[in-house]
Amino acid sequence: MFRNPLTIGIDIGHHSIKAVVLRQKKPELELVAFSEVELPAPVLNKQNSVNSPALLSAVRKLKKSLPFGARQAVMALPDSAIISKVIQLDSHLTEEESVFAVEQAISASSPFPVEELRLDFFPMVGEMFGETFAEPSQTHPVQVYAARKETIDSRVEVLRQARFEPEVMELQTHALVWLQQYQAERQGSSDGNDSEWGIVDIGQTATAIGIRGPAGTVYRREVSFGCETLSEAEHAWGGSSADKAEQFTKQLADQLKRQLQLYSTTYPRSALQGIWLSGGGQGLVIEEMLARMLSVSVRKMQPLSGFRRSAKLDLALDGKSFGQFAVAAGLAIRGCHE
């Protein structure tokens, strides 16, 4: 058995599957391997269900490129696959009573019968980030997440068939926040306040936004804007690659402005200082231009750069961003904290 077990973050995307393998080497995490397998056809549909045979084939191919003995896996669900609700629970309820109260609350707002859902809930006292409330009260806010059993179970079953051991199912934007927080601890920022930065992951078809809020909450949004926007609009935009980058940056800024304004309204006392850019589309963005349009600092993140690693991996990472591995890296970090 491994003294420090390997943890794999697996990100199932529309056009590829990505994996990042980490190992705990206190006080750091060590990057052991990373890999990406392109999909000949998408394995996800608009209802967030997976094509299990096609996904299994890709996962088995991915497994061959990972270290022998790497089994423990963490996966993510798209935010669009999740029902999220904050409820107030009596602080003196038993576990059984709490489960019943959560089921009643979700059944009132879910389009699906509660019997078809898997539920997870936790007090909003910042377990994710080590925060606590000052004084106990008669009631406390509880964050509830629900997802269809089929959505979760199909993914879990595919990994088990490929001889992985799925241990955690996390939200995609939560994985991004785990990565951002780890990078902040390792790198810090010039203003020394990286805790009030968000992360924006630009994918092929969508852009995910994750910002750590107060009391362990995560402000999360997903907008239908990604790299495909550039491909579809190239003929209309015309011009040089610089012109196209400028147009892409302007459209991204328009999408983000709405979300950041909503964040400011929701958390008026937690002003956002800046955003990290990740995802395969980060290279399409002009940082200075986006920073000027959003009135916050903007930096591009290298998701795999904040880990201890071998000279061989150093060489593989040299001069490249590998922004598309952000979610997988965040998932692996999440698994190492179990």
Describe what this molecule looks like in 3D:
- With 338 residues, the protein is of the alpha/beta class.
- The chain is built from 9 helices and 13 strands.
- It has a 5-stranded mixed β-sheet with strand order 3-2-1-4-8. It has a 5-stranded mixed β-sheet with strand order 11-10-9-12-13, sandwiched between helices. A 3-stranded antiparallel β-sheet has the order 5-7-6.
Short description:
The chain is an alpha/beta fold and 338 residues long. It has nine helices and 13 strands. Strands 3-2-1-4-8 form a five-stranded mixed beta sheet.
Kindly list the characteristics that best describe this protein.
338 residues, alpha/beta, 5-stranded mixed beta sheet, 35% helix, globular, ATPase_NBD, PilM, FtsA/MreB, Type IV pilus assembly protein PilM
Give the total of beta strands.
13
Describe the largest sheet. 5 strands, mixed
Rg for CA atoms: 20 Å
Order of helices and strands: EEEHEEHEEHEHEEEHHEHEHH
The end-to-end span amounts to 18 Å
Q: What structural category characterises the helix and strand content?
A: alpha/beta
| Arrangement of strands in the largest sheet | 3-2-1-4-8
